[in-house]
Fold:
Amino acid sequence: MQFENSLEFAQNLDQQDAIKSLRNEFLIPQHKGKDCIYLTGNSLGLQSRNIRKYIDEELKTWATLGVDGHFHSEKRPWYDYHKFSKQALADLVGGIPSEVIAMNNLSSNLHFMMVSFYRPTSKRFKVIMEAGAFPSDMYAVESQIKFHNIDYEKALVEIAPREGEHTLRTEDIVECIKEHGDEVALVLFGGVQYYTGQLYDLEAIVSAGHSVGAFVGFDLAHAVGNVPLKLHDIGADFAAWCSYKYLNSGPGGVSGIFVHERHHNQPNIPRFAGWWGQDEQERFQMKKGFKPMPGADGWQLSNVNVISSAAHLAALEIFQRVGIKTLREKSIKLTGFMEFLLNDLRLEKESLEIITPENPEERGCQLSLLLKKNGRQVFDELTNEGVIVDWREPNVIRASPVPLYNTFSDVYHFVQIIKKSIIK
Ligand SMILES: *Cc1c(COP(=O)(O)O)cnc(C)c1O
Structure:
C-alpha cells in the first residue's frame, strides 16, 4: 500500500477502516482530559466495556447462589468455566478445542509444560532458546535444568543474532538445532520476540526440532491475538501464553496452553497433576489414582479463577466476533504506516533505528525503536504528551499499534511527537 505523510491521509484511512467502531468498545486511558495515544497493548491490553458486565454477572451469581453457582448458574456454571474459552483459544492459536485450555499463569504453565516435555537423559539434555529471551522464561529454563541436576552451562544453548544484526535468521536457528542434534531435548522459542518484535518462522523451528528428535514448544505471550497461528498444522508439541497483552483480559489474567493432539491419550506422560485434570466422571469421587482428562484438560490442576476468567471470556468474545484474520489485515497496515512515517523522518541510524524486521511476515504489531542518543528524553516527552509507549533499557522504545483500538491518526501523532523531540 502507498502511504502518504499527512494527517489528512491518516484520517482518511481511519474513515475507510471497516472495523473502526471497535475502538468504542474499549476504555481509553486519559491524559489532560483527552484520549491517550495508547501503544502498549503488547504489555497490557485495554479493557473492553463488556468485561464489567461479565464480571458483574459472576458477582451476582456468587451473591445469589453461593456455592450453587458451580452447577446452577444459568449462563455459565463455574464447574464448566474452563470449557467456555476453548473454541476462541483454538481459533486464535490454530488448534482444535481439545488441544487448548486456559489455566494458571504463564510462567507456571511453562514449568508444567517442561515437566512433561523436558525430560533430559544423559545423552539428550540440551535446551535451545533465543538469546535474550524474556527473563521469566530464562529463569524457568535455568531452574528446570538445575532441577534435573544437569550442568546448566552445558545444557542451555542460546542463539544470538549475527554481529551487527538485531534479529535472528531462520537459517541460523535451524543450523544451531541441527548442530546440537540428538543432544537436544527441547527447543523452546518465543513466537514474537518481546524485545525486537520479530515473528519467528515457527514451522521451520518445529521441523528442525523434530528432525533431531526434540520436543518443540513456544511461548506465545507476544504472538497470541497479534498474529494468526497454526500450531496444530505445524505440529508444535506445546505452547503457553498469557492473556493480558494482546488478549486484553486484564492484569495477571489467566494463561493458556496448547498440547498437540499427538500427546493426548497418553495417560502415562509425566506431569504434575491436580484434581481439575482428573477425569471429569470421577473428579468428585475423591478417590486415589490420577486418571487424566484426555487432551490439554488433563494438565489442569486447580478449579477455575472465575472472576478473572470472566474478563477473559468477555475479551475473547470480541476476537470471536471480528476474527484474527481481519485484525491482522488492519494490523499490517497500521504498523506499516508507522514504519513509513518513521522512515520518512530520514534520521541517521544513530538517532533512530527500527530493529524490528521490515518484512510484515516477520513481525506483528510492534515496532522496536533503538534510540542511541537521547532515547530516555524522547520517551519522557512522549509521556508528557499523553503517548503511552514502553521503555526497555538501555535504549529501546517499543510501540505497538493494536488494530482493535488504535487508529491511523494515533500513529501519525505519535510520529509527530517523536519528530519534534528528536529534531530540535
Ligand atoms: C509477558 C511475558 C511473560 C510474563 O509471565 P507471567 O507468568 O505472565 O508473569 C513471560 N514470558 C514472556 C515471553 C512474556 O512476554
User: Anything to note?
Assistant: DSSP finds 14 helices and 15 strands in the chain. The first strand starts at residue 30 and ends at 31. Residues 249 and 315 are 6 Å apart (CA to CA). Residues 105-107, 134, 136-137, 190, 194, 219, 221-222, 242 surround pyridoxal-5'-phosphate (CB under 6 Å).
